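Sat 14:20. Reprocessing the chain from the morning session after the first attempt stalled halfway. Input below, unchanged.
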Amino acid sequence: MIFLGFSTCSMDFRQTFSGSWLEISFWVLHSICTVSFCLSFLSLWFKYSIVSVCFWYYCFGVFGGSQ
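Finished this time. Tokens:
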């Protein structure tokens, strides 16, 4: 959904400034922002997945040990 918004926004922008240096700089900036967004989202997901795995392991370890 976010990527769809990115692409539609950039398509509108490209139609307004077609064939100029502004378009090139916009696409460079757009690609850098998209890549950094993806990387930050992946690292965030990786971090929270490790935390959730440790949390569930701890919970099931405690409750499994008490039973």
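Residues 2-66 form one domain.
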